[in-house]
Amino acid sequence: MRIKNYFILLILSAAMSGTTMNAQSLKEYLWKNRLILLLADEFEEEAVQNQLSLLLNASEGLDERDIKILIVGRKEVFNITKTVQTQLKPQEILTEFQIMPNFEGILLIGKDGTPKHQAEFPCNPAMLFDIIDSMPMRQAEMNKG
Hints:
By secondary structure, the chain is of the alpha+beta class. The protein is 40% helix and 17% strand.
């Protein structure tokens, strides 16, 4: 029985490994934070700034759901204060989550490291919160208090 459980766990782990955060740089967020990645050529693009403004105006909802925002440019990754995250490599992130190089929009990643939603700019924060709030892990967090 123990061997059977081990094999089931091994098969499940292998099946999930293709869609979880394997990029060394994103592992620090695993099981701690949900991520909203803003994907565009540059931090200063109007679409990025508009989306960032929408999200930051809903900062209470971001905090409540343990959400961190990263801006993934074509050459660098930034946090919301425009600090370059040197440990993060945009191409690795795009490859990891199978994002087309010309895609501009958001990617929501769950605490488990798997992509949950992808949409073009602009994306309504309330819709993202609804998606998150329907997730089993978030349900457990809300029930826990």
